[in-house]
Structure to design on (391 residues):
């Protein structure tokens, strides 16, 4: 009988990787979580994280099941009850309301670090989950019995299954020789958080502009988070502004709907791209989260797709005999189960980005007519809302 250091080794201790580890806490599987940095939880209470996520109903249910949701500070969470979307023609708009779908909220807005802290707190008292951090993997070898992960400090770890949850530039994926089909959007996401003069009333706003997409997301208290998807010239312009000028510029772009703004986190920018993989599983290895797929942030569904991966994979592993968890045919079952949701979300986000980031006058007319028409069809809006919440 071969000795394994763990049944499952998860490479990447971010939101998706640590959520999978916590989901497996409820099984008899032994787990190692490999993370490159030792997280620090000593940030000032009055500060806010730059990275904000819109957590769907399905993701919230997963986080509740694994105990992470209960660990978070409720005063840092913000429900979104409605969303207002505006086209690049004056009268084109679309509104979603939670009450129309018969639910209490469309999503919850929360900070990356608050959720990360809650996930790691849940892992702290589990005897069959070991966190190895900081640690850097250096080599992955797979044979018919299992996988061996070598670390840069010389340690070699043996497991029945290795999970790559190490982000869009996945090291695990590169070790498998899987090359993603990368579609660069020639855009950047510029993010920043602000205090606001007028109450947001739990409403998110999104503006489709001729050259960019601007989103305002409600945060707890009198605060909001901005995501501005734009070209490089606009990114450079926004990043060069003084804090006061940036506040005025962002407020004006949204028609001063929330009054005067004050900056509470410095702006940051990151390139936007679509990653599509020919396959996400191999014998003894599976990719999840951004390692397996990325989407445009306009729908805020990237992390929710990752949590969908966690729910599906954890459920499958929980009902599988331990000596079979790395079998290729089993992992293919997981891949097939997730393929439709991932393909649909990638296609919708990619199509919307191409439709609105386009100067063709005919497309401009069609997209704005489409917004207005959808707004007049309550049944269609309910379907769209429920699909987004269950992603």
């Amino acid at each position: 009988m071969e000795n394994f250091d763990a049944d499952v080794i998860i490479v990447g201790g971010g939101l998706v990787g640590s959520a999978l580890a916590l989901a497996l806490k409820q099984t008899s599987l032994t787990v190692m979580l490999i993370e490159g940095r030792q997280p620090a939880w000593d940030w000032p209470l009055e500060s806010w994280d730059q990275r904000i996520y819109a957590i769907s109903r399905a993701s919230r249910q997963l986080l509740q099941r694994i105990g992470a949701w209960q660990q978070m500070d409720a005063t840092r969470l913000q429900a979104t009850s409605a969303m207002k979307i505006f086209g690049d023609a004056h009268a084109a708009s679309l509104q979603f309301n939670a009450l129309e779908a018969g639910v209490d909220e469309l999503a919850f807005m929360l900070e990356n670090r608050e959720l990360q802290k809650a996930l790691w707190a849940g892992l702290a008292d589990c005897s069959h989950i070991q966190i190895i951090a900081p640690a850097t993997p250096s080599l992955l070898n797979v044979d018919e019995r299992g996988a061996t992960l070598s670390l840069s400090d010389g340690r070699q770890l043996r497991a029945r299954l290795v999970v790559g949850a190490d982000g869009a530039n996945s090291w695990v994926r590169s070790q498998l020789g899987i090359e993603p089909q990368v579609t660069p959007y020639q855009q950047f996401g510029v993010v920043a958080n602000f205090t606001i003069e007028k109450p947001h009333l739990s409403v998110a706003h999104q503006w489709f502009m001729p050259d960019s997409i601007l989103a305002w997301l409600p945060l707890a208290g009198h605060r909001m988070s901005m995501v501005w998807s734009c070209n490089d010239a606009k990114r450079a312009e926004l990043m060069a502004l003084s804090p006061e000028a940036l506040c005025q510029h962002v407020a004006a772009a949204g028609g001063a709907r929330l009054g005067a703004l004050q900056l509470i986190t410095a702006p940051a920018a990151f390139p936007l791209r679509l990653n599509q993989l020919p396959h996400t599983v191999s014998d003894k290895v599976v990719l999840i989260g951004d390692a397996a797929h990325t989407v445009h942030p306009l729908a805020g569904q990237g992390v929710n797709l990752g949590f969908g991966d966690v729910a599906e994979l954890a459920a499958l592993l929980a009902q599988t005999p331990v000596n079979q968890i790395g079998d290729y045919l089993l992992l293919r079952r997981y891949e097939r189960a997730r393929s439709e949701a991932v393909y649909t979300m990638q296609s919708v986000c990619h199509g919307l980005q191409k439709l609105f980031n386009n100067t063709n006058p005919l497309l401009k007319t069609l997209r704005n007519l489409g917004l207005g028409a959808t707004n007049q069809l309550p049944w269609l809006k309910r379907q769209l809302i429920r699909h987004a919440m269950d992603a």
The chain has ten helices and 18 strands. Residues 18 and 120 are 7 Å apart (CA to CA).
